[in-house]
Design brief:
Largest interface: A-B, 37 and 36 residues
Bound molecules: zinc ion
Radius of gyration of chain A: 16 Å
Strand order of the largest sheet of chain A: 4-5-6-8-7
Organism (chain B): Halorubrum cibi
Largest sheet of chain B: 9 strands, mixed
Structural class of chain B: alpha/beta
Strand order of the largest sheet of chain B: 3-2-4-7-1-8-11-10-9
Number of domains of chain A: 2
InterPro entries (chain B): Thiolase (IPR002155), Thiolase-like (IPR016039), Thiolase_C_2 (IPR055140), Thiolase_N (IPR020616)
GO biological process, one term (chain B): isoprenoid biosynthetic process
Number of strands of chain A: 8
GO molecular function, one term (chain B): acyltransferase activity, transferring groups other than amino-acyl groups
Order of helices and strands of chain B: EHEHHEHEHHHHEEEHEHEHHHEE
Shape of chain A: globular
Largest sheet of chain A: 5 strands, mixed, barrel
Low-confidence stretches of chain A: 97-107
Distance between the termini of chain A: 38 Å
Number of strands of chain B: 11
CATH superfamily of chain B: Thiolase/Chalcone synthase
Keywords (chain B): Isoprene biosynthesis, Transferase
Radius of gyration of chain B: 19 Å
Oligomer: heterodimer
Distance between the termini of chain B: 18 Å
Mean pLDDT of chain A: 90
Structural class of chain A: mainly beta
Chain lengths: 138, 388
C-alpha cells in the first residue's frame, strides 16, 4: 500500500474499533475528517462526537460494472446511510447470509429505511479497507 | 460589458475512435469552427481548453499548448478541468473574457479520448470525479453515484425505470438525423427497460456511452463581428456556475442538484430572462435521471415533476419544450471534456436554423445549455439568444 492518509485512516481505525466519530461545528453541522473548518459554514473549532450505534439507509445501488479495485467484489451493494450528524457511504455486507449480495433482485437485497450498523471490512479484490454496513437483526 | 457572439462552432463526429490522438481530434473540431466562423486563426487571443482524464487516458498532462499547436494558434492557452463540466467552465471563462473587453476573439472547447481504455479503465477514470476517500473507496462508480440519486429521487417523488426509459428513447430518436452523434439508432422504451443492469436501478440504456470526440467554438465580441463582417447571429447572453459539496452523501438532498440551480439562477439573471422564456435546452444527461434533475434545476419542471416530462411528451422534439434535440449525452455521446462545448455548438445551430432538428423549433429565440461535473458538484449554465 501507499502512504496512509492522515486523518482519514485514523478515522477508519476508530471505526473498526467501534469508536467511529463525526466532526461537529459550533453550528451543529457534521462532517468527516480531515477538516480544519466546517465545510458547510466555515466555522471552527470542530469537536469529535461519537457516531450513533446504528444508521438508516437513505439510498443504495447494486453495482454490476465495477472499477478495477472492485473487480472481484462485483456485484456489490453500495449504500448511503444517515448516522446522526453525517451520512456515510459504504458497502453492504451480510445481506444474503454469507455476505454475497442478491445480484438479480432490484431492491430486495436491502431497503431504503433499513437500520444498519457500520464497521470496516476488506475489498475482496485487493484487501483494501472499506466502510461496511450490516443490517441490524430486528 | 460587450455582447459575446458565437462566430463559429466545430465538432468531430462523436463515437469510438480508439486510435485517434487527442491532438488530432481537437484539431479537427477547431478546423471546423474556424471554417464556420470565417475568422482568421491569427486573430485568436486566448484558447480555453477543457479536458478531464487525459493524464490517465493518454499519459498526457499540460495539454493546452499541445492543443494550441493542433489548432494552429499562438496565444495564451489554458486547460480547464471540472470533470464532465470541463468544457463548460472553459467556455464560461471565454465568455467572461470577451464580455469584459479583455479579448475580442477567444477559442473555447475541449477534447476527451476514452475508448483506447478498456471498460474497467474508463470506469476507473470517470470515478475519479468523485471523492476518492469517502466515495470511490466505498465502491461508488460514476453510474453508481447516479443510481444512488435515482433511487433517492424515486423514494422522494415517485417515478419508475419506465419513466427513465422514455428519456432514453426520446434522446435516441433526436440523434437520428444528427451527423455528429455516436448512436443514430432508435431505442424503444421496452429495449431500454430490458437492457442489462449497470448500477441498479440504472441499466445500460440509462447510461451515456464511452466516447471520443472534441468541440471548439470561436467566440467574438459584437464589435469585432461588426467590424470584420463576421456572420454571428447568436449571442451568449448569460453565464452562471455553481458548486456543491463534493460527495453525494454530504448534500442536503440526495434527489436534487442545487449547484445547477445556482448556475441557472446566475445565468438567467445575467441574461435578464427567466425559465418561461426558454424555447429549447441541451442538458447534461450522462444518465437518464440526470436529465430529470437538470430540467428541475433549470426551472423547466417543478421538483418531482421532471420525471414525467419525456413520458408525457413535454420535452420531446414536438413537445412544448424540446430537451436534447441533439440526442444529448445519451445518444450523441459524452467525450467528457468536450461535452460542454458541444452543447453550445448544438444550441447555436438550433437557433441559427442550420441544425438537422431546427425544423422542430423554427421560432426558437432562447436556448439554454446545462453542463454538470461529477454528481453535479460543479454545474455551468449558459443562455444563448438570437441577436440578429
Ligand atoms: Zn458548520
Amino acid at each position: 500500500m501507499t502512504a496512509r492518509d492522515e486523518g482519514y485512516d485514523e478515522w477508519i481505525d476508530a471505526l473498526s474499533e467501534g469508536a467511529g466519530y463525526a466532526l461537529v461545528c459550533p453550528e451543529g453541522h457534521g462532517s468527516l475528517p480531515p477538516r480544519r473548518v466546517c465545510p458547510e459554514c466555515g466555522s471552527s473549532p470542530l469537536s469529535e462526537e461519537p457516531l450513533p450505534g446504528s444508521g438508516t439507509v437513505e439510498t443504495f445501488t447494486v453495482v454490476h460494472v465495477p472499477s478495477p479495485r472492485f473487480s472481484d467484489d462485483a456485484p456489490y451493494v453500495t449504500a448511503v446511510a444517515r448516522f446522526g450528524p453525517v451520512r456515510l457511504t459504504g458497502i453492504v455486507r451480510g445481506v444474503d447470509g454469507d455476505g454475497d449480495v442478491d445480484a438479480d433482485g432490484d431492491g430486495d437485497a436491502i431497503e431504503v429505511g433499513e437500520t444498519v450498523e457500520v464497521d470496516v471490512g476488506e475489498r475482496e479484490t485487493d484487501g483494501g479497507r472499506i466502510v461496511t454496513f450490516r443490517p441490524v437483526e430486528s | 460589458m460587450t455582447e459575446v457572439r458565437v462566430a463559429g462552432v466545430g465538432l468531430t463526429r462523436f463515437g469510438s475512435h480508439p486510435e485517434r490522438t487527442g491532438r488530432d481530434l481537437f484539431a479537427e473540431a477547431a478546423d471546423r469552427a474556424f471554417a464556420d466562423a470565417g475568422v482568421d486563426r491569427n486573430a485568436v487571443e486566448e484558447l480555453n481548453y477543457g479536458n478531464f482524464m487525459g493524464a490517465l487516458a493518454e499519459h498526457q498532462g499540460h495539454q493546452a499548448p499541445l492543443m494550441a499547436e493542433a489548432a494552429g494558434v499562438r496565444c495564451p492557452a489554458t486547460r480547464y478541468e471540472s470533470a464532465c463540466a470541463s468544457a463548460g467552465v472553459a467556455v464560461r471563462e471565454a465568455v467572461r473574457t470577451v464580455a469584459a473587453g479583455d479579448a475580442d476573439v477567444v477559442v473555447a472547447g475541449g477534447m476527451e479520448r476514452m475508448t483506447n481504455l478498456d471498460t474497467e479503465g474508463a470506469t476507473e477514470g470517470l470515478a475519479i470525479a468523485a471523492d476518492d476517500l469517502f466515495e470511490v473507496r466505498a465502491g461508488v462508480t460514476f453510474p453508481g453515484a447516479y443510481a444512488l440519486m435515482a433511487r433517492a429521487y424515486f423514494e422522494a417523488h415517485g417515478g419508475s425505470r419506465e419513466d427513465l426509459a422514455h428519456v432514453a428513447s426520446k434522446n435516441h430518436e433526436n440523434a437520428l438525423p444528427n451527423e455528429y452523434a455516436q448512436f443514430r439508432t432508435e431505442v424503444s422504451v421496452e429495449e431500454a427497460l430490458d437492457s442489462p443492469p449497470i448500477a441498479e436501478p440504472l441499466h445500460l440504456y440509462d447510461a451515456c456511452p464511452i466516447t471520443d470526440g472534441a468541440s471548439a467554438l470561436v467566440l467574438v465580441s459584437e464589435e469585432y463581428a461588426a467590424e470584420n463582417d463576421v456572420d454571428a447571429p447568436v449571442a451568449v447572453t448569460g453565464t452562471g456556475q455553481g458548486t456543491d459539496r463534493m460527495a453525494l452523501a454530504d448534500r442536503t438532498d440526495l434527489a436534487a442538484t442545487p449547484a445547477a440551480v445556482d448556475a441557472a439562477t446566475a445565468a438567467y439573471d445575467d441574461a435578464g430572462i427567466g425559465p418561461a422564456d426558454v424555447d429549447l435546452a441541451e442538458v447534461h444527461d450522462c444518465f437518464t435521471i440526470a436529465e430529470v434533475l437538470a430540467i428541475e434545476s433549470l426551472g423547466l419542471a417543478e421538483p418531482g415533476e421532471g420525471i414525467a416530462a419525456a413520458r408525457d411528451g413535454h420535452t420531446t422534439a414536438d413537445g412544448d419544450l424540446p430537451v436534447n434535440l441533439s440526442g444529448g449525452l445519451k445518444a450523441k455521446g459524452h467525450p467528457v471534456g468536450a461535452t460542454g462545448g458541444s452543447q453550445i455548438a448544438e444550441v447555436t445551430r438550433l437557433l441559427r436554423g442550420d441544425h438537422p432538428n431546427s425544423e422542430h423549433v423554427p421560432d426558437a429565440e432562447v436556448g439554454v445549455a446545462h453542463n454538470a461535473g461529477g454528481t453535479v458538484a460543479s454545474a455551468v449554465v449558459h443562455v444563448l439568444e438570437v441577436a440578429e
